[in-house]
Design brief:
By secondary structure, the chain is an alpha+beta fold. The chain is about 25% helix and about 40% strand.
């Protein structure tokens, strides 16, 4: 066979394939999958969740030069349910309602089309499944976004896979990886079988009886915002209760006669102690006794008050002697040990927190959080200046309870705390070099810029500029470098990205 004949046969073959594929792959379908019920275990903070939502979907399948092209748009509506998490040393249920459902981030949603009993010229396929990459998942009335994908003829149909049913509550993984077909017990059909399925109209019916039905196979969520807001609410309630208790205690005044008698007895006991201690070695050569320090401080306070003021409370005495006690008990140098947890990242999975010693996975790394000192989860966010301090809480990864707080002085305003990446490649691979803390507590200017004219593109409009002090922090939250005063710009983008004009 001459080269011209081979070339002509090849062109004819691909032309035929493109024509067949284009004829059989030209469909779109919209619908709603109602009352999707999902259970999630091993979430961040040791939490679990039971969720219910409606899923609106748009599926478009077409052909380009003989190759199948798939595009899907997904929108989650009416998310409800509850999250179970340890907060303030108690297992608590946080209800998810229309008021706080936006605090639950939908990070990933696995979506497939699934069909039973497909006949071929040489037999039957028990089930047939088509995967549709989700893209950006919309919430409520927002718009989804996706880019069409080309899985290839030999990876388009997955045969004999087992996928979750639609009428029961399923415990689903976070993501569908590249081996999703084998992960569900199936195998991809060959390109030849795929062509036969297209020619026989296998994709003609989506959503109908006996045709392909939509299924949810994975769901990745973030609950850091929900848990953080609930923790803040509980903390504020606790503070209000503590304040009420302190105000109630303040109204209870001690009886002056009882106070005088107690102080007189204390003076007599101290005199006996001093007589007994006079036979001991010189005080300068011995370690001070905290009890004697407390006694001396009580005597000094009683003499200063001349027994005419309110009885000293133990908190006052402890506050007065705490520097002395700290000097006696604190070691000269404190070394920071490696913490018990680390973050592990695996292909096709969300980052997880693992216990170093046992290798036990305790949950997903919450969105916008980092693990500090191997012990605490810290949120990268904006923090307000309160009582002269920027206070960044550090919570226990397992219980979600606040265990420490990193504090930095401020005069007013706020602080932005975020990870710093040297290059775009570092950002893509999650390789941060340090933290940046910008404390905006200086002079502030505000602006009222005019919006850009129509059809001039997207522009940054500066609405405020604030003097700030910028610091570089290491991964232990210690200040490494003071960069001095910088200018922080605030604003937003405005204008049009795409603009159609009549000519």
């Amino acid at each position: 066979m001459t080269m011209a004949r081979i070339l002509a046969a090849s062109v004819a073959f691909w032309a035929l394939l493109g024509t067949v594929a284009a004829a059989q792959l030209d469909m779109d379908h919209t619908g709603t999958l109602s009352n999707v019920r999902v259970s999630k275990l091993n979430l961040a903070f040791g939490a679990s969740a039971d969720l219910t939502f409606d899923l609106e979907y748009l599926v478009r399948i077409s052909a380009l030069m003989g190759a199948p092209i798939v595009n899907c748009g997904l929108r989650v509506r009416s998310l409800s349910g509850s999250v179970s998490v340890m907060l303030l040393d108690e297992r608590r249920q946080i209800p998810i309602t229309s008021e706080n459902s936006d605090d639950v981030a939908v990070l990933y949603l696995g979506f497939v089309l699934h069909r039973f009993n497909i006949g071929l010229s040489h037999g039957w396929i028990r089930t047939l499944t088509v995967n549709c990459q989700p893209g950006v998942i919309a919430r409520e009335d927002s718009q989804p976004f996706n880019v069409a994908s080309n899985p290839g003829l030999d990876r388009f149909f997955c045969a004999n896979a087992e996928v979750p049913a639609v009428d029961i509550r399923n415990e689903l993984p976070d993501m569908m990886g590249p081996d999703w077909c084998s992960d569900h017990g199936g195998t991809f059909v060959s390109a030849d079988v795929a062509r036969e399925l297209f020619r026989d109209g296998a994709m003609d019916d989506i959503g109908g009886w006996g045709g392909f039905s939509p299924r949810v196979t994975a769901l990745g969520i973030g609950i850091a915002e929900l848990v953080g807001n609930e923790r803040q609410r509980l903390t504020e309630l606790s503070r209000e209760q503590d304040q009420a208790d302190r105000e109630a205690d303040a109204t209870a005044r001690p009886d002056p006669s009882t106070t005088i008698a107690r102080l007189a007895a204390e003076r007599a006991r101290v005199a006996q102690d001093e007589a007994a201690n006079s036979e001991q070695p010189d005080e300068a050569t011995t370690t001070p006794d905290p009890v004697s320090i407390i006694a001396r401080m009580a005597r000094a306070r009683a003499r200063a008050a001349d027994l005419n003021t309110q009885e000293p409370v133990i908190e006052d005495i402890v506050a007065m002697i705490s520097p002395a006690l700290s000097a006696m008990t604190a070691p000269a140098v404190t070394f920071r040990e490696e913490g018990p947890f680390e973050v592990v990242r695996e292909s096709g999975r969300l980052p997880e927190i693992m216990e170093r010693e046992s290798g036990r996975r305790i949950g997903r790394l919450p969105l916008h959080h980092v693990l500090v000192q191997g012990r605490y989860l810290v949120r990268t966010a904006r923090y307000d200046c309160e009582a002269g301090q920027i206070r960044i809480p550090g919570v226990d990864p397992e219980s979600g309870q606040e265990r420490t707080a990193f504090q930095y002085s401020c005069r007013q305003g706020f602080a932005d705390f975020f990870l710093h990446f040297e290059t775009d490649e570092d950002r893509d691979n999650d390789r941060a070099t340090h933290f940046t803390l910008n404390i905006a507590d200086g002079a502030r200017q505000t602006f009222n810029p005019e919006p850009p004219p129509p059809c001039t593109g997207l522009r940054w409009l500066e609405t405020a500029r604030t003097e700030a002090r910028s610091f570089r922090l290491d991964f232990n939250m210690d200040i490494e470098i003071d960069f001095g005063v910088i200018q922080l710009s605030e604003g937003h983008h405005a204008g049009s990205v795409l603009c159609l004009q009549r000519i």
